[in-house]
Amino acid sequence: MKHEWKKKEKQYYMPKAKPEIVNIEKFNFITIKGEGNPNEPAFADRIGVLYSLAYTIKMMPRNGINPEGYYDYVVYPLEGVWDLKEEARNKEVLDKDKLVYTIMIRQPDFVTPELFELALDIVKKKKPNDLLDSLEFTSISEGKCVQMMHIGSFDEEAKTFEVMTKFCEDNNLEIKSKVHREIYISDFRRTKTENLKTVLRYMVMDNN
Question: Which parts form a coiled-coil structure per UniProt (predicted)?
Answer without folding.
Answer: none
